[in-house]
Amino acid sequence: MYYKQELEHFHHVTRFENNEDLALKTIGHALLWGSSLLECYEETEGNFIEWSKEDESFEIVEGFRFARHRVIHQFIQAVHITDGVAFPLEFPTPFFEIQWVNRSQLPSNNKRHEHKRIGDCYEKALQGIPVRFTLDALNGFFKRASEI
Predict the structure, then answer these.
(1) Using an 8 Å Cβ cutoff, are 62 and 121 in contact?
(2) Which of 73, 71, 70, 54 is nearest to 112 (CA)?
(3) N or C: which end of the chain has fewer CB within 10 A?
(4) CA distance 22 to 109
(5) What are phi and psi of 108, to 5 degrees?
(6) Contacts of 126 (CB under 8 A, 6+ apart)
């Protein structure tokens, strides 16, 4: 519920206010709520991990999980603001995007959380793309997960 509220608030309000700090704050809230929701499913749904491997957003979720492990207390370190916009456009259109940073730009990590496979998912499915696309994919994923 809170994840969806933050996602909708970003998509329909803060993204269009031309206030990069406010947009980063909203993205940060959505990422943390998404992380909490993912952990909740992992801990309470017995077949969640196996089910998620078959989901269309599996690589995005795994990449998100990798980012979460690397920057959980400073999630905002995993994203940066860029000039310009990405398609599809929504009007009115802000002239910046918040994108995932390159894997090499993430803070160094405790080796126990360094998983090559999910790191590769991060590179393939998240790095360099607008965070709003990831949040949309996670929204669909969580909607499908609520039906298992």
Answers:
(1) yes
(2) 70
(3) N
(4) 28
(5) -60, 160
(6) 60, 63, 64, 67, 100, 134
Q: How far is CA 33 from CA 29, 30, 68, 125, 147, in A?
A: 6, 5, 11, 20, 19
The 10s digit of each residue's pLDDT in 35-77 is: 888 988 989 888 898 999 999 999 999 998 888 777 765 666 6
Scored b (16 or more CB within 10 A) or e, 14-52 reads bbeeeeeeebbebbbbbbbbbbebbeebeeeeeebeeeb
Point out which residues pair with 23 in neighbouring strands.
none
Separation of alpha carbons 15 and 64, rounded Å = 21
Contact 142, 3 (CB under 8 A): yes
Which residues are paired to 98 by β-bridges?
81
